[in-house]
């Protein structure tokens, strides 16, 4: 009976969440260990429907879903290459060429790039194709991304990269600018605005005031955790952010699992 319960639960979870059967099964088996007494009771039951109705089973499922939710929500995955260690960069990896192609016109022109909430994107950026970029400034509050990025920058001798491991708003935007510049040529806010809207909404006004010629703002089409579309919700957040910035949309960006706007 237990094997049947686990099999059905794995299939239910894989339909809803972005997790493989193997990973889901591993989490379930860990949780099962804590339910030894009840599990032996379930083992004797012939009708699974009777088990599904019990509060113990409902509690068991709730705990597993919570575990899966939190394991999927973490941006960082240990043991992966830098490019694949951050969920946002990993999801884009397959479509990176297409993504860059759509913003190539702007990237080819610029001197100074400011990657706000940059995560691990820098590790997949083809610096050799953009020799025009004199400075690539990275800002992110996450310390574990910072350590990996720092190693990557040193290993690849990327002299034009400058890193700031701090929170948005810690200093005035002009402090990140090279002295010869009054505004950034392009600011990357990739998959950032919806996160800030959710976690630190008060920062949006500051973010919208960033001095920039162009801003690239993107959002996710699919939830990081569930197999459901979140594009409409993220579009609304991004559209009102663009209105707040006072800039105009000059191009729409669209790849399989990410959408965005280039504004000026
Ligand atoms: C969804 S990830 C996107 C990463 C990257 N831009 C990409 O698209 O590949 C959001 C990033 O924003 C960073 N972040 C969130 N809030 C921040 C804040 N207040 N200050 C600085 N970084 C922040 C997180 O640490 C995370 O790396």
UniProtKB/TrEMBL annotation:
Domain of life according to the entry: Bacteria
InterPro entries the UniProt entry points to: SAM-dependent_MTases_sf (IPR029063)
Protein name as catalogued: Uncharacterized protein
